Structures are given as structure tokens and as C-alpha cells.
Amino acid sequence: MYVYLNTRPITSLTYPATPHAAQAKELISLFKRKAPDTDIDSVLATIDSASSDSSILASTDAYVTSLCYIGSKSLSHVLSYIERSKDRLTAIGHSSPSARAQIITSVVAFWRDVQAGVAVNIVDKLLNYTILTPSSVIAWALDAQRIAGGRLLAETWIYEMVERTINKVVGRVRQIVAARMQPGSSAEQVAMLDKALVDEVKSMRALFEEVDDALAGIAQGAGEGMLEDADTSSGDAVKAEVELATQWGVKWRRVWARRLAVEETRLREAGKVFPGPAEQVQEAMEVEGNGDGAVVATETAAADGDDIL
After folding, report:
1. Which pLDDT score is estimated for 201?
2. Of 36, 60, 121, 150, which sits most exposed with the smallest number of CB within 10 A?
3. What is the DSSP letter of 54?
4. Are 249 and 218 in contact (CB under 8 A)?
5. 3-state class of 307 per DSSP?
6. Domains of the chain with CATH codes
7. What letter would DSSP give residue 287?
């Protein structure tokens, strides 16, 4: 819940009735004074001790939300505060998958109703700092419950968040390929690049599979809650929503299948220029399963001649 003042969101954490509101206000004050970490640690410890479980999710939410608020004057301001808090955020992000998810949730919750694009930029920055992992962003963005059974696939900021994440992973593969194609590298450098290429291709392929797996149920109309919504007892409007969400799932799945096919083609063409670890890279790109994979989806889409979007 937010109220707005000069288009800047004020989180409900600042209201007395909200749990940990007093600590959130104290955090904001500490940020403004550039207080030492020990003072911030004390506040976060107080929040954790009052939480009903043993996780750090409540203190993470308060910490990240306070950062967003104190830096909400502009994108450059919030990125500056993130830069100052990079070490603590890294420790939080590396502690558990749920902590990484909470960081994204807090950032998006603060900005979504005002400027969702700012949230996307912040998540992108957190990826650069390795506070978040590409897999954690994909898992968060395409969580079936969070995107309401596919209904939010029509939101441009969701697509941009996924696209930026995919681009980072693909970009690393392209950078290694470009370096590998440069003449004059020593045998040791070539060996290091070849190993890095195999590892990055495997990571890229795994990420695309995560995207495809997340979208498969939605594209088939069997995502979380979709079957219940499409039951005959539901109204026509709800059924129409489910059908539209299914169509979005199909289109999204096709987009990323085609993108993977493009990247794999680039790798095969590059392999003709330098021999390198061709077999290992090929193994990393192979599709497992019974034909429901992304490459098969790409071939089907090409045969249908459908538009990407």
C-alpha cells in the first residue's frame, strides 16, 4: 500500500500501524546521516528478533525498501545508495534464494505503481554487482503465482526484466567467442577461453530451459490456477482471460525459443572459424527430453509462420 507525494512513493512501512515501522524510520534516518554499519546492524537485528521465523526476510524488506525510499529522488540517487550498500546487499543476496527473491520483491513493490522501469533498472544493476543471479531473476519474474497464471505476461516491465537478464548471459558468451576469435592468443589463453566458453554455454542453455519450463504450463493452459479458472463454472470473462494468458504464454515461449536458436547458430558459425571445444559446446547445446524443448518449439513456430508477438 502506498500514498504519493510529488510522485514519490512512500512505503507503508513508515506508518505506525505497520510492523517494524519504527525501525524502518530509524533506518531511513541512519541512511541520511551516513551512519556506521554497526548502527544499521543493530536495527536489522531488532527486526529479525521480532520476526515470527528465523529468516532475514523481514529485515531485508525493511532494508531494501528504506534504500529505495531514501534514494527515490532519482534513479541516479537510488543507484548511488545501492553502490554504498553493495557489500551488505551482496551478503544478503548470497545467503539464500529466498533472500534474493525478497530483494526483488521489495524493489518492485516500491516502484511498480509509480515507475516500473526504475525497478527494472535497479534489478539490472543488482545483477551487475552479482547481488542477484540470472536464475533468481527469471524464477521471480516468471513465478506462476506472481504473474497470475500468465495474465501479467502482457506487462512490458516483466518482459524487459527477463530480456535484460537473458541479454547479460548471452552477452558473456558472445564476449568469450569474440576473444577466442582474436589472433595471437597463447595456448594457455586459448585453453582458458575454451573452458570458459563451455561453462557459459551450459549456463546460457540452462537459463533458457528455466524460461521454457516456467512458460510451458501457461502455454498449455495448465499453469497454476489456470485449470480451476477455466472450469465450466467460471464466467465467460474469466475464461477469456485464461485463454488470453495462454496465448501470451505461447508467444513468450516462441520468442525465447527463437532467441536460443539464433545464439546456437552463432556458436556453430563461430566454431567453423576456430576449432576450440566444438564437441563440448555442442553437448552443452543439445536438447534433452521428448520433443517439448525450446528448439523443437522454434522449429514448430517457424513452420507455422507465426509472428513473434
Report:
1. 93
2. 36
3. S
4. yes
5. coil
6. 2-132 (1.25.40.180), 167-304 (no CATH)
7. P
The rounded radius of gyration (Å) of the Cα atoms in the chain is 22
Q: Which residues contact 246 (CB under 8 A, 6 or more apart)?
A: 150, 218, 219, 220, 221, 226
Residues 6+ apart with CB under 8 A from 268: none
User: Distance between CA 259 and CA 253 in Å, rounded?
Assistant: 10
From the first residue on, what is the mean pLDDT of each consecutive set of 10 residues in the chain (309 residues)?
Answer: 38 60 89 90 90 81 93 89 93 95 96 91 96 97 85 92 97 94 88 92 95 90 54 65 87 96 91 69 55 43 39
How far, in Å, CA of 111 to CA of 209, rounded? 29
Prediction pTM value: 0.82
C-alpha grid cell, residue 264: 546456437
Can you give the pLDDT at residue 54? Answer: 65
| Phi, psi (deg, nearest 5) at residue 288 | -100, 165
Cell readout for 68 is: 529505495
b/e for 167-193, b at 16 or more Cβ within 10 A? eebbebbbebbeebeeeeeeeeebeeb
Show Cβ contacts of residue 42 under 8 Å, excluding neighbours closer than 6 positions: none
The dihedral through the CA atoms of 102, 88, 135, 174 has a sign that is positive
Chain center to CA of 208: 12
